[in-house]
What does this fold into?
Amino acid sequence: MPIAVASALVSLTLSKVGKTLLALPLWLAGASFACAGSAGETGRSLGQGWPERLAPLVAQIDQEFPGELGFYLRDLDSGEYFSLRAQEQWYLASMVKLPVALALLDMVDRSEASLDERMTLNASDYVDGAGETNWHGPGAQLRLGWLLEQMIIRSDNTATDMLIRRIGIERVNARRAELVAHGFGEITTLADVRRRAYAEFHPGASSLSGRDFIEIRGEQDESARLASIAERIGVARDSFAVSDLSSAFEAYYATGANSGRLDAHALLLERLQRSDALSTPSTVHLLGVMSRVVTGEHRLKAGWPDSVGFAHKTGTQRGRFCDGGIASRTVGESTRRLVVVACTRGSLSLADAERAMRELGAAAWRAGAFD
It folds into this structure.
């Protein structure tokens, strides 16, 4: 259940910084938490600034949400941070498209690919979801740079799987591991997300195609979707191992694929921001693309004034909603940059999840994290 009192949350994430760091693997204690083993080493007390003011605000939001919230917020300059369940595994949904982008641009930096290079859209590439790639017919020649924009800005699944085909899923996972060694599960194609989830009904679903997924998703209701799955794999619906979509997806989430700790994902974002992951031109390009995301207008950034910029990537899947990126605010000659990651689980309501993330963003602003 949600943490009920602010004092418990403060104790968990702020005042016992030493214990928190001891509980972390060495890679995270040394790399992500620049404040090291005690608050005093930064010259600023973690227990007397915005994190302490943020704690009761987040506790209230957490109590009111009909599920669980995960939240991680860290000042990239001071090292001050706030954490709620950030060391737990969360299904990241389309936030895993960030590692795909990092792997692609790493290839560009190594002159192994070019954003002007074109790929052929194959009939086997289509996956259900948002974006403009599915508007094109088989045989279309699509630029890698355009596919990257579709993947990040519109969370286009077909564009993502095309880029994974160009990169290789093994290289996507290897590059992510080079940047952040621990805290993530296996990243898969988006088509495999559907195959693995539907295979919880029956193993035969592992053979379904992207076109199948598009047509299944086009059914009017859940009952019709399940009937369509059964028909396509040639089995009786009463042979399914689970009875509904929520049960199938929950079983899939439990496998740990496409999941990660929020503090680990924050470290990946931090490495991007600091140009540790890519060359400076590629870093600038990717952050620019992430600043144009259109899928999170009602999430974290909705809680901030227009003076706060946000380079981010969202994630949306059944009962799992996320948003994470680099928030920045410039005042005079000074720019405050924070890495922010939030996820929800336990509620199928997108409206409730977006409201909670919007409130988390507003709470960070009210607590003075951007001051």
